[in-house]
Amino acid sequence: MPLLLNKDQVVNVLDMKDCIGALDAAFTEMAEGTAVLPLRNNIAPPKGLNLYMPAYLEKMNALACKVVSIYKENPTEYSLPTVMGTVLLQDSITGQVVCIMDGGYLTAVRTGAVSGLATKYLARSDEGQVAGIYGAGIQAEMQVWGVVEAGNISSAVVYDVLPEAASAFAVKWGEKLGIPIEVAAAPEAILETDVICTATTSATPLFDGAAVKPGTHINGIGSHSPGARELDTEIIKRSLLIADSREACLNEAGDVMIPISEGAITEDHIHAELAEIVAGKKGGRSSADQITLFKSNGLAIQDAATAKVAYDKAREMGIGTEVDI
C-alpha cells in the first residue's frame, strides 16, 4: 500500500547531508547514462499552470514524478497556496506506487542540496570561508544549509531588501548551523564573501560582476525564466560556467540566454554540466583565483533522488500513513 507523507513528515525525515549524498549519486547516474530525464510537460488550464517533472534513476531504484501547480488566484479565491507540489514515487521493478508526498519542502531541500554539491566540487578547498546569501526566504535558508554542510564554511553574511527578514534569518540559521551569521547593510557587502548564493525573486542583476573577487564560487538559484536574471553579463563572462543542464540553461535561464543574445558569449561558454564534473568526465576549478559559477534550473532527477531518501527514511522511522487505493 502507498505511504502518505505530509509536509511535517517530509520535514522530519529529510536531512541536508543525506540529500547531498543522494544528489551526488543521481548526477553520477546522469553522467553514466543510467538516468532518464524527459522534458518537463506543461498544461495550462484557464486559471493556472501545471508542470509535470518525471525522472528515473536506475541504480537508485528511484522512479518519480513531481507535479507543481501555480495558480495566482488561489490565496484570494480558495484560501490555498499559489504554488503547490506533490511527488509520486514508484517502485521501478514492479511499477507500484509506493509513496505520495508533499513536494514543497522537498523541492526547497533538494535545491539547497544541489548548491551544496556544486560547492563541494567547485569552491576553493581552504578552510574558514564565508558564505554570502542574497535573499532570506525558504530557498535562501536551504542555500546556507547546503553550502555549510558541503563546504569549508565557518561564517555567513545575508542580505535581503527586508532587513527584518535578514535579521530573523541570521538568528535562526546561526543557531541551527552553529556559525556566526551577520546581516549586511548593503548588497555589495556580499561580494566580500567566498561562496555566493543568489536566492531571490529579482528579475534584474543583484550586483556588478566586475566587483566579484577572484576565487569566488557562485550558485545562481533564483531566476529561472528567459527574461529574468540575478547575474549580469560581466560575471557570466568572467566565470567558469557550469550548468545543471545545458539544455535548460539555453532555453530557460535568462542569466545565460541574455548574454548570448547580446553577443557577449556563445553557447560554448558553458564549460560543463554538473554531472560531468561530479563523474570526473570534465575538470572543474583549475586555480585558486578562478571564479566558478553554477547555474541551477532544477532537474527532476533531484526530486526523484530526494523522494527516495525521504521514503526510505520514513519507512525506517515508521513515519507516514499507509492507504489502500
Task: Provide a descriptive summary of the structure in words.
The chain has about 325 residues and is α/β, with parallel strands linked by helices. The chain is about 35% helix and about 25% strand. It has eleven helices and 16 strands. Strands 1, 2, 3, 4, 5, 6, 7 and 16 form an eight-stranded mixed beta sheet that branches. An eight-stranded parallel beta sheet has the order 10-9-8-11-12-15-13-14. Strand 8, helix 5 and strand 9 form a beta-alpha-beta unit. It is globular and about 60 Å long. It starts with a strand and ends with a strand.
Would you spell out the secondary-structure blueprint of this structure?
Blueprint: E1 3-5, H1 7-13, H2 16-32, E2 35-36, E3 41-43, E4 49-57, E5 62-70, H3 74-77, E6 83-90, E7 97-102, H4 104-122, E8 129-134, H5 138-150, E9 153-159, H6 163-177, E10 181-183, E11 195-198, E12 217-220, H7 233-238, E13 240-243, H8 246-252, H9 254-262, E14 270-273, H10 274-278, E15 292-295, H11 300-317, E16 321-322
Parallel strand pairs: 1-7, 8-9, 8-11, 9-10, 11-12, 12-15, 13-14, 13-15
Antiparallel strand pairs: 1-16, 2-4, 3-4, 4-5, 5-6, 6-7
Helix pairs in contact: 2-4, 2-11, 4-5, 4-11, 8-9
